[in-house]
Amino acid sequence: MTPMIRLFVLPLLLLASVAQAQLPDFRELVKETSPAVVNISTVQHVQNNGFQQRYGLPEDVPEIFRHFFGAPGQGPRGGGEQERASLGSGFIVSKDGYILTNNHVIKDADEIIVRLNDRRELEAKLIGADESSDLALLKVEAKNLPIVELGDSDALEVGEWVVAIGSPFGFDYSVTAGIVSAKGRSLPNENYVPFIQTDVAINPGNSGGPLFNLDGKVVGINSQIYTRSGGFMGVSFAIPINVAMDVADQLKDKGKVSRGWLGVVIQEVSKDLAESFGLEKAAGALVAQIVPGSPAEAAGLKNGDIITHFNGKSIYLSSDLPHQVGRVKPGSSVKLDVVRNGKRKKVNVTIGILPDGDGAELAINNASPQESTSNRLGVVVSELTDAQRKSVGDGVVVRDVKRGPAAFAGLVNGDIITMIAGEPVRSVADFDAVVANIPANRSVPMRIVRRGAAMFIPLRITE
């Protein structure tokens, strides 16, 4: 090797050696933690008539249509009981056999089999399951089992290395690694779990398995993947272990989970809405509706309040609020920082127990024939019927939307307007009076109820 080539090669080798030294070594972590990771398989016994199994059609298809899929006069084929199997992962949290996994892994199972690292297979009993957090607590009859060490998911930082162990596609004790991509993620239909997002390879079968930090402590439970193909795409989500253990403790003690409840319907604060409410930046949870009889109503919260802090913690996105409320023990008193009509206020609220169902479904019926036209907005509104008032309260219903500010704001036929610029709209007369006083060339908030859901939209009149 010539001196010139040596000058180039040696620095490259040195850099490669330094980079290799900085990468984590997971060997000891895997050896110490994998004995407490388990494979979970389930069996569900269902009645199958053969017809559904063969053609993938509902069981209640009328008999006359079955002739299109079989010989005339031929009945269902291959009837009888069918077994449906599922596969997932879990981990042992106590030496006497308590195991955590995902609810969707064991949902509707008639049999749950847990396979340990030493190849023992034990039948598990379901202690309790919580669909809202997608968690389930199992119990096997055994002693002195290896257990995981629990970490603190609140202390987890974005960019930190994490390791997953599970059974993707049925391959036992597979190990993958990556970093924490984000924290506090909200997913559709998942209001009470601030998910940890990672780029760890997670695939079907990994569900319910542990997510470890570099200290070998569990910081999350691998739960969901974002995918368009059914495989790993670099976006995976785990339930924080602090959330999971709170659920597990409640399932163990009571067999069910009680969550804190505030009783508000909220929405995001967009840039336009922030301007209409006089805020400097778009942040917080905008209260679009107060549930009757809720803790929010008792505390004096109002439609149009913007919650910026919950018990001292900032609320940047509206999705941050359910995460915080759900973790509060019912009966506890908390402080809210809100912005009301441009002024900051503090409100004390005693958190209630989240009821079954949201109870906030509102009906919208046909409007009465009494109408009034506001050319300033380009919208025709009318009084509410008695049935609408009983469901929604006061307001006016939109009968027709013409070209103008109302159309630009996104109003549609059937919307019920209940408030404009902080002023209540109880009737057509109120509506006309409020609209007449709306300042030009400035956004103001307008509260509407659309198909039972309350929301605010920004309204601007340019004159």
Rg value: 28 Å
- Here the CATH topology of the largest domain equals Thrombin, subunit H
Number of strands: 29
CATH class of the largest domain: Mainly Beta
**Low-pLDDT windows of residues:** 57-77, 358-370
Percentage of residues assigned to helices: 10-25%
Class derived from helix and strand content = alpha+beta
Domain tally: 4
First and last CA, distance: 81 Å
Largest sheet: 7 strands, antiparallel
Beta-strand content bin: 35-45%
Overall mean pLDDT stands at: 82
> What would you say the CATH architecture of the largest domain is?
Beta Barrel
Helix count from the secondary structure assignment:
12
Strand order, sheet with most strands: 5-4-1-2-3-7-6
Anisotropy-based shape: elongated
Fourth-tier CATH superfamily name of the largest domain: Trypsin-like serine proteases
Summarize the structure.
It is built from twelve helices and 29 strands. It has 463 residues and is an alpha+beta fold.
